[in-house]
Write a structure and sequence with these properties.
There is one protein chain. The chain has about 475 residues and is of the alpha/beta class. It is built from 15 helices and 18 strands. Helix 10 packs across helix 11. The longest helix is centred in the last third of the chain and has 27 residues. It starts with 10 loop residues before the first strand and ends with a helix. Bound molecules: adenosine-5'-triphosphate and magnesium ion. Magnesium ion binds next to helix 2.
Length: about 475
């Protein structure tokens, strides 16, 4: 904080106590606003943020865990909040939650926006025609259509492939789309951030990308601020430049975790499943900021970590409720070497309707779900009596389900370095044909000319396959 501007009338008081990241300042002079950045006398490197008032004290957060802060130091108002740079100049750059560059580039100070103030737009997008984006990943295009302006979650326990799948989506979608991408790394490995940066640089996608990182080494205060920082950048592009944005976040659960750590730090009482109520309201506010308006759209891909592989975790539930599609990754499937390790039964999408995906796609999805359901119940029977005891029809469905599971497995471009296999990209039409072939046992062309009535090609289908 700039020390030359410390004025007498901005004097708040002195530090009364320090506990963890929490700094309590006894108010002797003027009162700061909440979320205002405060200056510590003779310590320009400190970032202190006023959070709330408790009696005559203002409870603040030592954002960077600056260790030189001590009791008795004088605190001043700055009339500023945490801001991040926005706009054209930020493209191709990497920032932390305080808007400082992480890429050795020059700091950007011309155009900045406070991260705690949503742009407050109310002009939500009307039910305009929904546009599907192709990801080239069979299981995503088929079960959780990637629709512009909507939210898709990739959820799973530790090490089941969330990051690799998110990277593959970035690789595939940014390749075909001219739109702007914002990447937000929250509480994950620093190495992964570096790798992504290098990959994007090599593929020339970086110039259309803005990145924000607050990885696992950052304080919970900083980690909880990265997602709002990235949302601020996205809101600016959406509302002031009318752009369509692809927003990737790995990992949104870490945001919840950071908020939880912070509320513990601030002495707030936890409730449901150890999470404080503040965590859930904050999550809703964040998701609300990532919505689409009249001006532009934000399409988000959110990786969600599941603690202890427990899908019923209250935070995981709260996150899932805000997503349009939830792709569930399963450890038992990953162990069989199937990638992406998608649990076809638990994966859901509210966008899988005939209106959006077309009649043919919808019917195939219904059939696949029915077959998978049957497979799930037959599995237990087969374990006891063996496959030969099944009726011919059940046996066929069982075999088809196994074929489908294999069919949805595909090689990733971003995994080439550890799998040695080149990546595969399938158009939606290829995916639908492949599924139809498995379900009917006949090649798709033959089938569609024979029984055109049963699987009519709708308008919706044609627009997506071009
Ligand atoms: N598509 C794939 N092809 C080959 N290997 C893969 C694929 N996806 C994941 N893996 C393997 O699984 C490992 C873990 O994947 P990843 O880092 O994406 O998991 P994660 O769910 O993000 O884990 P965490 O919860 O720890 O962040 C990878 O390092 C890689 O070895
Ligand atoms: Mg990961």
């Amino acid at each position: 904080m700039n020390q030359s501007e410390l004025k007498k009338e901005d004097f708040i008081g002195s530090i009364a106590s320090i506990r963890g990241l929490t700094v309590e300042v006894e108010v002797q002079g003027t009162k700061p606003d909440t979320k205002e950045l405060l200056a510590v006398q003779d310590l320009p490197s400190a970032f202190i943020e006023a959070n709330f008032f408790r009696g005559s004290h203002v409870v603040c957060l030592n954002l960077n865990n600056n260790s030189e802060i001590h009791c008795g130091q004088k605190i001043y108002r700055t009339h500023q909040r945490v801001t991040v740079p926005v706009g054209e100049k930020t493209m191709g750059r990497v920032f932390n939650a305080l808007g400082e560059p992480l890429d050795k580039g020059e700091p950007i100070n011309e155009l900045r926006r406070p991260i705690t103030v949503p742009s407050g737009t109310t002009s939500y997008r009307s039910s305009k025609k929904l546009e599907m984006l192709e990801t080239g990943l069979k299981v995503i295009d088929f079960l959780t259509p990637f629709v512009k302006g909507r939210k898709i979650g990739i959820i799973g326990g530790a090490g089941v492939g969330k990051t690799v799948l998110t990277m593959e989506m970035i690789h595939n979608v940014t390749r075909s789309e001219k739109s702007l991408s914002i990447y937000c790394g929250v509480g994950e490995r620093i190495r992964e951030g570096n790798e992504l940066y290098e990959t994007l640089k090599d593929t020339d996608v970086l110039k259309n990308t803005v990145m924000f990182f607050g990885q696992m080494d950052a304080t919970p205060a900083i980690r909880s601020m990265v997602a709002p920082a990235a949302a601020t950048a996205a809101e600016y592009f959406r509302d002031e430049e009318g752009r369509d944005i692809l927003f990737f976040i790995d990992n949104i659960y870490r945001h919840v975790q950071a908020m939880t750590e912070m509320s513990t730090n601030l002495g707030l009482i936890p409730s449901e499943g150890g999470y404080s109520p503040m965590v859930f309201s904050d999550l809703r506010r964040l998701q609300d900021r990532l919505s689409s308006t009249e001006q532009g759209t934000i399409t988000s891909v959110q990786a969600v970590y599941i603690p202890a592989d427990d899908l019923s975790d209250p935070a995981v539930q709260a996150i899932s409720q805000q997503l349009d599609s939830v792709l569930v990754l399963d450890r038992s499937i990953a162990e069989q070497g199937i990638r992406p390790a998608v649990n076809l039964l638990k994966t859901t999408s509210s966008l899988l309707t005939p209106d959006i995906v077309g009649e043919r796609h919808y019917r195939l999805a219904e059939k696949v779900q029915a077959v998978m359901q049957k497979y799930d119940s037959l599995k237990n029977i087969i374990a006891i009596v063996g496959e030969n005891e099944l009726s011919p029809e059940d046996r066929k469905d069982y075999q088809n389900a196994k074929k489908l599971i294999q069919f949805f497995s595909q090689n990733f471009s971003v995994a080439e370095k550890f799998s040695g296999q080149p990546g595969e990209y399938y158009t939606l039409e290829q995916t639908l044909d492949g599924i139809e072939e498995i379900l009917t046992g006949k090649p798709a062309e033959e089938k569609s000319s024979e029984q055109a009535v049963e699987t009519p090609k709708t308008e919706g289908n044609e627009t997506k396959t071009s």
